[in-house]
Write a structure and sequence with these properties.
Chain A is an alpha/beta fold. In chain A, about 35% of the residues lie in helices and about 25% in strands. The longest helix of chain A is centred in the last third of the chain and has 20 residues, at about 345-365.
Chain lengths: ~400, ~400, ~400, ~400
């Protein structure tokens, strides 16, 4: 049986759940290849060693360049903060490794374009880890929209509410433009933009407002020092889509009492779909085809055999959680690699998302409507063809 | 006991529930004056006569000018579509009648300014019927915000989802710019703008997108004919407020499955309030003052003796409905008139709302940020002083 | 036009909203008769006078026997606490007056039987004011069940949660067996039993547990004295229905944070209906007829033209409130009287409910299953025939 | 480092998620011992082999007696249907293996007692897999109740709604008394009884009603044959607890549209806790200590550092899913074994639950109140002492 040997950079938070995905994917899914958890990479060796042991990695390394050089690694998983994505991805591509990279793909569109160039140039396979495309209910929404069940798409609505109000929260890379690209937009808004791409299509133009409400946070070191926050706490923007739909987006870190709760809704000429991230196992669906007396939004438990991943991940509509999404994501990645194709959610999607994020930041800064520069992505794509085999 | 003698123009839909308000207000509230339902006015005499009898009016008339001339009428209630507001209000003011006018106050800011001029010039009292300011939970939200319970206001979020997808709906004045000023914005967006004024404050500038999705509707007569819709089905806009807050608004008539459901949310530095129009008896309130272990949004039944109208309208948290809001509105109006003061929600609020609506329409048309012209309102106010006694 | 002249006994709380019903019914409904609010009756003359004026009654009286004697009164509305129902109803029947009586009809089945005998003997019309039968969503549930949409009825589930935890609440008639018959059961459980009769059918037998948790309350006078509570704070019981269904009921006054919130659910072989009293405008409906991919509970806005009272009371699914139910109830009563028939929810329903309540109390006391004595009601009915015309 | 070598019997459904637990526990938790997934046991070798590979087991075996004999297995995990529990557990105990057994522990109290005797006699450690005790929100409820935050416990309310209406579902062991002990009661009611034990305490007596609604199902083989169902589709019962509280329980497989959704609520003299199994990350908590103006149920995201497992499993209130509960369960089991103590949720809890289940079945059969025979359990416990070291 073919092996896919993995090296993962960044063992905290998101690296932990990526690890969970690799370890547990075959509990739920059949794969034509076996993932091998070769090496976990990070900087704090003590903590890293413990993590590698706990998560089930064969070894650990404090040098990401070293794991890229390793012959026994086929796939590099980038779970670092955004400011490392570009360099690691380019090196990995150069070394001929397949790559999965956490979202947002980069700090800016130019960075993302470089990464895209690299994977095309070196013919490696690539995925952006937009894990919410892995929600069964989101997939069902996609199926319903694509099969015309809500008719022509009229409107998109999306908000992501988060709560980082606590002034005692330290100024991590989250709050520094140099490290993260921007604030709420890159961090959480990126998911919403990607889901809009998935469910509605390309964005024609955006008009945005953004703001910093908590201008200073405590530095991580030296502890106690105050340092300036230079990224937005919240951004709200409106959009026109290429297909004629209109839409609104919001990403906020100052929504007291809401903890990474997002909601997306697509209104069409014949119905509506709505999804809330705190009710992962359900999709709300409205259709004007129901007879009037019984008409009303259906609350669908996504867990029938007709539903995406239905029988596998949430048989009988059992509640799934955020961790489960990383198992599905691992499946999507490894299944594509095992079959020799590129994952559906590639660096292209990461770059397209970044094109919109850059347009949003530009719009907020220049106080006017702004258009995403998708064309630069399509040029690279046209030049590069799809991932070439190795 | 003093009497307040009322003439109401427009007996359908909204005129019906205004009538309910006058008839039932004293069942719940003490007033220092007695409302007398003198005359109901409309065009279709047959239907009007029946309505007058059913609603409890002493008489009826098919000529609104006639009821304004009547000596035995003190207060004119304008429940017609927007295109009549201006003319009726100006005539009523000239005749020295106090006025309550349905929202939106006018089809445009210039019209609203004329109406404002008129009531100031003739020294009559005036109210705009923004009935959602009468929701006990909304009043509680105002109290909590004003007393600093959510800290500094950071963000406003509001959407009103409605469903007029059915292509068989006839092209009423709802869908004609000449009659209504605009579409979803004037009709339902106006409520959201007013609530933003109430809970957050003046809007500095807006950027908007709007669209017509259903371009033709069936004419009312000749029946069967198709006629062009020239007002927006949906509008989404973002805003900066004068106090530094940011916000988003949406008014949609193409949200399949949602029936006049709106939600408003104010995020502050110390907490959040959220209100949904389909749960009129509750306010969601979050405060960072709760100890962490128990912290989470409170779902407050508004019906304690500490709550606005609590013991009167929803003792013990009983469910109130839309009809009840018109009873509270009648109280607010008649109580002010009985006490010889102007209602708190005057034509000023109607005009301020219209200033924002005009800015939104201008922004959508010109594709750029746009500022409400509040200054023109304040000039009239400054010139006119408050309502002069008669 | 025919007049129906009304005398109402008991002007507080429930008497207020019955008054609202008479006053506003013709705002919404066409009637072939005109209700005339003749006289309001109570004991505290000062407060009564004010109430009569506010509610719109022509006169007031402190003697209920006097209003029963009045020639110009056709209908007696009994809104007193339960301990007066029996005497007033029997006198009213003897005087040939039609009667509407608040629920619970009496303190016990024997009392209810006397009342039933009286209305049959004197041939007057009669109604028990189970106002929750007037909820449009409940009517829709009834229609769906009757037309077989949920198949064979398997299970009933009902709970009513209320919060009288506050130890400072005075010991009103609510807490005294002599005045109210029992506690949570008579007060709120009676509604659930009536709705079970309406939606499922007769109860074969019950097994109950009940308890007093707050054994003493402050007497109303002399203030400050503690007095024993002798009625249950909560009761929970299970039941077998005559049609083979099974069910459970709960009525609790010690459910902290819940304010008169009840929920009922009927599970059938092909689907489910569920209703929550805090969401009066909606019915949840599940059917196995939906194709599997879209299957899930529908959340129906009750306000289409196909829905009971849809266009009248909640056009377009507008939120209705508790007050509105009394308008519908007034319509059901007056429409029946105008048409010369007995209201559908007659004293029979009141007595049937009481039969179950007595069985529940007996079961809790004797610690065994107990059967409602419906037979005694049917004997009276058989003997008496329907209400004879006058 | 110490190893805990595991053999698991029963690889379908529940065995899969137990496997997930062992495999992923150290991703989230620190343990002083390393679980080693030695051998997976089942009957269909082809499928078993695939499962063993996918789940990460070192080997597989079609003979459960063989894995019990193995020297390199320390812990037996019983994931078979109930009719095998007794025999396997007794053999495993005799062989000196620690045991975790799926719920319900047995088909009847006598069977459970034998198992309890066995683990005491042979001094092995033992756990019943009541996985809902592992929900962070349920643990928080326990903490709040124990620390007096809701005062004296008055009422328990619990229902579990499931939907096996589809007549095409085959007659598995689920529907056969001989294999499962009973129907909805053993299957899902057992969880509710255990949670009542956890949060309220021992049950004094119960009165129950149960019913078979779908009397025949299709046999698994020969396919197409109809076979009689001899276990209840639904059971509802009321209870008195030893501490004076009262309560109700429901377990239904005929609740169309509900998929393993349960809700539990504890009402106390000072507040309430409520939990819904489809919202695993939240606890609803009401306290009369909040000031009246802000009072209302709190919706607590369980994911603060003060919350049980808060930072580990649901940092920041992230949604957890059913799979995550098995990771927590694996931790509770392995952590106890590593520390040399018995897991908190031992066979005692399994037996106590079974005592109540037997009482419920007896009550339904004999149509009278019935008392759980806890005493027989306590005798064994008294005789046996705690698990003796090996």
């Amino acid at each position: 049986v073919k092996e896919i040997r993995i090296g993962l950079v960044g063992y905290r938070g998101i690296g932990k759940v990526h690890s969970l995905g690799y370890r547990s994917v075959r509990t739920f899914f059949h794969l034509d290849a076996v993932p091998v958890m070769k090496v976990l990479c990070g900087r704090d060796e003590e903590a890293l060693k413990k993590a590698a042991l706990g998560y089930g990695w064969e070894s650990h390394s404090v040098d990401w360049r070293e794991i890229i050089r390793r012959k026994d690694v086929d796939l590099i998983d980038i779970c670092t903060p955004p400011f490392n994505h570009n360099e690691i991805a380019k090196e990995a591509a150069k070394a001929g490794k397949d790559i999965i990279c956490e979202k947002p793909l980069a700090r800016s569109l130019p960075e993302a374009l470089e990464m895209l160039e690299a994977v095309y140039e070196h013919g490696v396979r690539h995925m952006t880890a937009f894990n919410y495309r892995c929600v069964p209910a989101v997939r069902l929404a996609k199926e319903l929209i694509d099969s015309g069940e809500i008719g022509e798409v009229f409107q998109w609505r999306a908000h992501w509410l988060s709560d980082l109000l606590d002034p005692a929260l330290p100024l991590s890379w989250f709050y520094q433009k140099e490290k993260s690209g921007s604030g709420a937009l890159q961090d959480i808004g990126s998911h919403l933009v990607d889901l809009a791409h998935y469910l509605v299509g390309p964005v024609e133009e955006v008009s945005a407002v953004s703001q910093i409400f908590i201008p200073e946070r405590l530095a991580e070191k030296p502890a106690g020092d105050k340092k300036k926050v230079d990224v937005e706490d919240a951004v709200q923007f409106i959009a026109r889509f290429s297909n004629g739909a209109m839409g609104s987006f919001e990403a906020s870190r100052v929504a007291g009492g809401y903890r990474d709760e997002f909601e997306i809704q697509v209104n069409g000429s014949k119905g509506t779909v709505r999804f809330n991230s705190k009710v992962l196992h359900k999709l709300e669906f409205y259709t004007t085809e129901d007879e009037k007396k019984r008409r009303g939004p259906h609350s669908i438990f996504v867990g029938n055999e007709q539903h995406p991943y239905g029988e596998t991940m949430c048989p009988y509509g059992e509640v799934i959680g955020r961790n489960d999404l990383f198992i599905i994501q691992a499946y999507e990645l490894l299944n594509a690699l095992a079959k020799g194709v590129n994952p559906a959610t590639s660096f292209l999607e990461g770059a397209r998302c970044q094109a919109v994020l850059d347009a949003v930041l530009g719009s907020a800064r220049r106080h006017e409507w702004s258009k995403p520069e998708y064309a630069r992505i399509e040029q690279i794509k046209a030049r590069g063809g799809t991932a070439r085999g190795r």
